[in-house]
Amino acid sequence: MIDEKGNEVKSGLGGWLILVGFGTVLSPIIIFPHLNSYLTIFNDGSYEILTTPGSAAYTSFFGIFLWGEILCNAVLFFAALYLILLFFSKKKLFPKLYIYVLVGSLIFVIIDALIAKQIFPSKPLFDAETTKTIIRTSLSSIIWVPYMLMSKRVKATFTK
Questions:
Q1: Cα dihedral across residues 26, 31, 34, 39: positive or negative
Q2: Torsion of CA 61, 66, 68, 73, to 10 degrees
Q3: What's this model's pTM, rounded to 2 decimal places?
Q4: What pLDDT band is residue 9 in, cutting at 50, 70 and 90?
Q5: Angle between the 93-119 and 128-150 helix axes, to the nearest 10 degrees?
Q6: How far apart are CA 157 and CA 160, in angstroms?
Q7: Nearest CA among 33, 42, 41 for reference residue 133
Q8: Where does residue 135 rank: exposed (0-12), middle (13-18), buried (19+ CB within 10 A)?
Q9: CA–CA separation, 147 vs 135, rounded Å?
């Protein structure tokens, strides 16, 4: 592909897009254990104890919070799978959806932590895992959102 100045623009899944592809392929592998961990809550009886009014460990709004987390993580998981399809088929939708998922993930983690703090006031607002996720997702957003918006390779690659 030739840009408006007559320079050749590289296209294809090379260059920095290799890192984007690597992260895209890893995303569902990272998200799946979170989804799988919810099974423990249902299988060990914790869900009933925490959501049944009158039980010793009843926690208001825990059921709604948990189902919200499950729904958001499921959406992120299926979006990650869809992103893999878009990436390797070089669809034009990939950069935009990639940005939405990246920024949406960051917003979800922050809102999730704020809601969890309201439901479990004795727990820290940002535990070590949440802090690590926020930092990782923030750095990814700072790097990859501008890349998706400004890269000539991205524009030349995702055209279908």
A1: negative
A2: 160
A3: 0.86
A4: low
A5: 160
A6: 9
A7: 33
A8: exposed
A9: 18
